[in-house]
Every structure is written in C-alpha cells, then in structure tokens.
Design a protein that fits this description.
5-stranded parallel beta sheet, 14% strand, Alpha-Beta Plaits, alpha/beta, 4-stranded antiparallel beta sheet, Malonyl-Coenzyme A Acyl Carrier Protein, domain 2, 314 residues
Length: 314
C-alpha cells in the first residue's frame, strides 16, 4: 500500500525491446490501442506491427527500437491512468530514451510531440553511428574510479553509471576492445561488448546532439508537474530551456542512473512503477540498494497485481 506522494514512475530505454511487446496491451485495453493508432499517424508506418511481429533485426535497429519502446511505454501509462484516474507520480525518471517518456508522464511534453522528438533522435543517432562508428561494453565488478582510469587510458568514455558495480563504456571499436581487456586484467567479473548500433552517450554522438537540439528548440515543453530527474545531471530540472539542454546533452554524456535512484530514495519514494517493456530498472534498483521496491507495469497481470498491491488504497 502507498500514497501518491511516495510513488515514482520509471521508464526503460533502448535494449528493453522484444518482439511481441505491446501485444497484451493492445488486445486487452482500448486506451493502449488508441496510442498505437495515433503513433501510426505520427510516424507514417505501423509501429504496432514491428512491436508485435518484428522481425527482431528490424526492431533492434535504433531507428525503430526507440519509437517502439516509447510508444509501448506510453500505452502502458495510458492504461495505468485509466485504471487509476487520480494517480499522479511524485517523481518521474527514465533511462536514456526513457527520459522522453518520463516527461510525457510529468505533463511536460505531449505524446505526439514526444514521439516526433524520439523519431528524430533515433534517426540522428543511427546516422551518427554510421558516420562515426563505435560500440559499447558493460563492465561489471569494478568501481567508477577504476572504469574512469580505464577509459582515460584507452580513449573511450563512461556512457552509463547503471549501478555501483555496472558501468557501461562507449567509444570506437579499438578503444572498447582495449578497455575490455584492461577491465578483465583489473579484476572485473565481466567485461562484455554490447550488441548496440553505435557509441551512444559519447562524443561520437556530437552530430546527433546538434540535430536533437535543433528539434527541441521548436518543441513546446512545459514545467514538469512532478519531480523530474534528468540523466545528464541527476539533479531535478524544472525550467523548459534547462530540460531542452539536458535532453540534448544526454546524447554525449554519461547516464547517471545510480545517482538518480539514490536521489529518489532521499525523497522518501517508497514504491516505483516500471512502466514499459522489461524489468531492467527493477534489477538496477536492487543493485543500487534503493529504499523502495519497483513493480512492473506492462502486461495485463501487472495491472491486477498493482490493483491488489501497492495501489490498493488508491
């Protein structure tokens, strides 16, 4: 059981996609179907088809994965709002791409405007990855300082601070290969190259940052109606221009997720709802030793569990 003042909404980023996501939402909830229908009009193609049927090689492409995750997350959010009309989060945050979903949940950006931004962001990131090839690697079992030292030595960059012992590096292939070798020699439990489309959250995304900044400059953004914690600073942001700058800066900066989770804990958040595909954020919250639990919100059964669990009094 919980009160609205202690609930956070968390939204996943790229990598959480899987073929079949959104199907249960579409088949069981009219509100979700409407979101996918609107997305078709905005995008000019059926993201529902790609989400529910794939193929996987299409869904995993950055240009499709990001709109797919965003739309699926918003569909789940709309169902949550329909089932619990008075429910408002005290805090909203998202991992990388999930920031845009969080801003929709916070009443800062309209869904349609957010989808246009996500589409442009994905296209810009995919093109930057073609122009400036690179990759990423997950390092588990080393400290942030150890990973920073490895990054400096090899020429790669810190991309994600996901939890105290899970840090993601980003850079060109040569730098990432060298970084993985040094990490393993330094005692890392694992240093694994990731199957991603580019060196995200690094200086190799500078062109994408410029393009996104341009798109953001013409997008209407309102002050968030709840606490919004951006990735690039991990400090609550309230002003539209500040939010615009941080959304663009995120493409070339580390995702400070560990700090975001700790800040949420310090704000007396008791429960969080992970809205969208997968349970990645639930796992990271445990690794961050957060003071709150995270419940999933994607499948039909998830809403029933919420109704009889943390949202029962609401």
């Amino acid at each position: 059981m919980s009160t609205q003042s202690s609930i956070a909404y968390l939204f996943p980023g790229q990598g959480s996609q899987y073929v079949g996501m959104g199907r249960e939402l579409i088949e069981n909830f009219t509100a979700a179907k409407k979101v996918f229908d609107t997305a078709r009009e905005v995008l000019g193609y059926s993201i529902e088809e790609i989400c529910t049927r794939g193929p996987e090689e299409t869904l995993t492409r950055t240009v499709y994965a990001q709109p797919a995750i965003f739309v699926t997350s918003i569909a789940a959010l709309r169902v949550l709002a329909q089932k619990f009309p008075g429910l408002k989060p005290a805090l909203a945050a998202g991992l990388s791409l999930g920031e845009f979903t969080a801003l929709v949940a916070a009443g800062s950006i309209r869904f349609e405007d957010g989808l246009v931004l996500v589409k442009k962001r994905a296209e810009a990131m995919e093109q930057s990855a073609i122009n400036n090839p690179g990759t990423m690697a997950s390092v588990i079992g080393l400290t942030q300082n150890e990973c920073v030292a490895i990054a400096k030595h090899t020429g790669c960059e810190i991309a994600n601070l996901n939890s105290p012992d899970q840090i993601v590096l980003s850079g060109n292939l040569e730098a990432i290969t060298a970084a993985c070798r040094l990490a393993e020699e330094g005692g890392a439990k694992r240093a694994i190259p990731l199957k991603v489309g580019g060196a995200f959250h690094s200086s190799l995304m500078k062109d994408a940052q410029t393009q996104l900044q341009s798109a953001l400059s013409t997008t209407k953004i309102a002050p968030p109606e709840c606490v919004f914690i951006p990735n690039a600073s991990s400090v609550p942001a309230t002003q539209p221009d500040e939010i615009r700058n941080l959304l663009a800066l995120q493409l070339v900066s580390p995702v400070r997720w560990t700090e975001t989770m700790l800040r949420a804990s310090n704000r007396d958040i008791q429960f969080a709802i992970e809205i969208g595909p997968g349970k990645v954020l639930r796992g990271l919250a445990r690794k961050c030793n957060c003071s709150f639990t995270v419940e999933p919100c994607e499948l039909k059964g998830d809403f029933e569990k919420l109704e009889h669990g943390i949202l029962k009094p609401l």
